[in-house]
Structure formats: C-alpha cells, structure tokens
Amino acid sequence: ALRSALPPYGDLKGVQHLWRLWKHGSQSSPAWEKREEQGKAWRKGERRRWHELRQVLGEVEALARNRSITPEQAAGSMDAERGACTMPEFIKRQLPAKLAARKALQQAAAAAAEAQATAAAAAAASQAAAAAHQAAAAADAAAQQAAAAVASRQH
Predict the structure, then answer these.
(1) What's the CA gap between 89 and 92, in Å, rounded?
(2) By the number of CB atoms within 10 A of the CB, which of 8, 48, 81, 152 ranks highest?
(3) For residues 146 and 139, what is the distance between their CA atoms, to the nearest angstrom?
C-alpha cells in the first residue's frame, strides 16, 4: 500500500509542527511549500485532508498578519489556544469556529468601511449641493443686477 504524503492528524503534534512541515519539511520529506510549488501530485488522493490542513496554515498566516507577528509566533499562539485539544479535534471543531469568526470580522469591517464611504459621499454631496445653491443665488443676484442696470439705461 502507498503511504500518504500527509501524516495522519493524530501524528501532528500541533500547529507549530504543521507549520514546520509546511516551511521546512521533515528528515524524510522536503518542505510542503516547496513540493506544492512543483504541483499537487505529491499529495494525490488527499484533497479533503489537504484542504483542512491548508485552512490551518491559512489561519496561521492571517493571525500573523493581523497581529504583526511571525507565523511561528502565530502557530505557537494557536497551539496555546488549542490547549489540551488534539489536532483532529482542533481541525474538526475549533478551526471552523475560528474561520467563521474571522469571516464575520472581515464582513463587519467591510460593512463599516462601506458605511464610512457612504457617509463621506453623502457629506460631499451635501457640500456640493450647498455650493450649487450658493452659485445659483450668486447667479440670480448677478442677473437681477444686470436687469436693473439695463432698466436704468432704458429710462
């Protein structure tokens, strides 16, 4: 039987271990990141498990970005949050909740940015309307002055 390129979830010691496999590989295998650059044949038949592991790696990268820390620190933080939970439990239970929370946060930030942009557009439209009103009043006053001047010349 062919041995899978991906270790069973139970063999993963934690998120930091998974990150090391991604970046540096193991004694018997090159870094997954390098293998992935050459194509996906190395993990053939492991689509679902790869997707789940990739979600963990993506969460490490997002946490590192959001907190301005290294991915290694982010992986350590995730392991600390994972606590006594095994990697299979983490992947099946905790990770979906983390991904949903991050998605909700991104949606809330996008909605806030859209509301801010809408408010800014409304303020700009209000200023433009006020300027147009002032310009119309000035044009009206100029037209009245011109009409008065023409009337005074005719008398």
Answers:
(1) 5
(2) 81
(3) 10
Report phi then psi at 29, rounded to 5.
-150, 135
Q: Is the dihedral of CA 17, 52, 89, 82 positive or negative?
A: positive
- Other CB atoms within a 10 A radius of the CB of residue 22 amount to 22
What φ, ψ does residue 28 adopt, rounded to 5°? -100, 0
Q: What is the 3-state secondary structure (H, E, C) of 44-73?
A: CCCHHHHHHHHHHHHHHHHHHHHHCCCHHH
User: What pTM was computed for the model?
Assistant: 0.66
Residues 6 or more apart in contact with residue 149 via CB below 8 angstroms: none
- Residue by residue, pLDDT tens for the chain (155 residues) are 445 678 888 889 999 999 999 999 998 889 999 999 999 888 888 889 999 999 999 999 999 999 999 999 999 999 999 998 999 899 888 888 888 887 888 788 888 888 888 888 888 878 877 887 787 788 788 778 877 777 777 76
